[in-house]
Amino acid sequence: MIERQLLTRDITDSRVVSAMERVPRDRFVPPDQRQWAYEDRPLPIGYRQTISQPYIVAYMTQALQVAPDAKVLEVGTGSGYQAAVLAELAATVYSIEIVPELAERARDTLAELGYRNVEVRQGDGYAGWPEQAPFDAIMVTAAPDHVPQPLIDQLAVGGRLIIPVGQDRQTLTIFTRTEDGIEKEATLPVLFVPMTGEAERR
User: CATH: 3.40.50.150, 3.40.50.720, 3.30.465.10, 3.30.930.10. Which one for 2-201?
Assistant: First the structure.
């Protein structure tokens, strides 16, 4: 996975590569999907949700430029795999999952693997996690058709938000908070599951 899917492409951050090496992806997929765990494609994890392909996980993680002392917010815990990768890099990770069963499963898997710097909350991530803000990095792993303003508001100065935005066609977009405001950069075309909950009502 590392050699064929990451190093041959544009994943150059050695900390991200090491994190991807350390996290056992097969532990985060259902048993009937484990034979495909290290292939470069998304896999179903139940409840109409997926685990992202390894390249996209690495790409989004690298784009956030996570420092060792960073406080990170993830919206869309899913399997917990992305949270584990972030936990290898950051001081603390706060992750929100709207599907109760997935939140519980991810929490259990992360605990079994010894990740003590991840806190998983069940709920709607549209409003972020205001009592823990500001965040040095925010990652959203489901696609709204607009960027939730609370997530922008919860970025620290110098912080970066990466989010897939759009309906049928989505663009992975990076927002950076500077002293003067917010900078925006559109990157890859992607396909994520839709963001549910409050995002659908706005």
Answer: 3.40.50.150
pLDDT of 11 over the 90 cut? no
- Residue 3: which residues within 8 A CB-CB, separation 6 or more? none
**Distances in Å between the alpha carbon of 54 and those of 21, 51, 70?**
11, 9, 22
Q: Tokens in use for 8?
A: 């041959």
pLDDT at position 22: 96
Please state, as a whole number, how many other Cβ atoms lie within 10 Å of the Cβ of residue 46.
14
pLDDT band at 201 (very low <50, low <70, confident <90, very high): confident
CB 19 within 8 A of CB 88: yes
Tell me: the pLDDT tens digits for 14-55? 999 999 999 999 999 999 999 999 999 999 999 999 999 999
Spell out the domain ranges in the chain: 2-201
Catalytic positions: 52
The side-by-side arrangement of strands in the sheet containing 135-140 is: 118-122, 92-97, 71-75, 135-140, 155-166, 170-178, 181-190
Q: What 3-state DSSP class applies to 6?
A: helix
Q: Which two tokens stand for residue 136?
A: 């040095």
pLDDT beyond 80 at 5: no
Continuous H helices in 131-183: 149-153
For β-strands 155-166 and 170-178, DSSP reports them as antiparallel
